[in-house]
Specification:
154 residues, alpha/beta, 5-stranded mixed β-sheet, 5 helices, 5 strands, 28% strand, globular
Length: 154
């Protein structure tokens, strides 16, 4: 498949706990989306900008181990034209199981920690380093947030 620089292909994975008849188990969720790339955003625009709607998307969920659950990913990625190589982006919270499963099913993908989790870690780090509620912590957090957004404004 030719690389289309105007199309963003994303794959996002997460897990949560659900109470089943067999006790609490992981509910794994994966979403695939394909959409046109949106314009780059400044840090001030980042939270309010409008992105193009996906032209293809699928969400799968199951109470399965990752080795079983990930087997469906490749087929769905192919059906949606997401493909392999450097174009697909896998978003996750940084959990090793997500990166390992993505590398196995979407070889060559770009693996990115989602913005929510990055900002959560930045906030915690600046509070620990500079004191919770201090001006120094807020200044450092905003500088790190801006640097993160400017690194890839999509």
């Amino acid at each position: 498949m030719a690389v289309d620089r105007e199309t963003l292909r994303r794959h996002c994975t997460a897990a949560g706990k659900v109470n089943t008849t067999g006790g609490w188990r992981d509910l794994k969720v994966v979403g695939f989306a394909r959409r046109l790339c949106g314009p780059a955003a400044t840090p001030g625009e980042w939270a309010t900008r409008s992105l193009p709607r996906p032209n293809a998307r699928v969400v799968l969920a199951d109470v399965e181990g990752i080795d079983t659950f990930r087997l469906a990913w490749r087929g769905w990625a192919d059906r949606l034209g997401i493909g392999s190589g450097p174009t697909p982006t896998v978003l996750g919270d940084g959990a090793e199981w997500i990166w390992n499963a993505a590398a196995a099913q979407i070889p060559g993908c770009r693996q990115v920690v989602d913005v929510y989790h990055v900002l959560e870690h930045l906030s915690g780090a600046t509070k620990r380093l500079y004191g919770d509620g201090t001006d120094a912590a807020q200044i450092r957090y905003e500088a790190a947030r801006q640097a993160m957004v400017e690194g890839d404004g999509r």
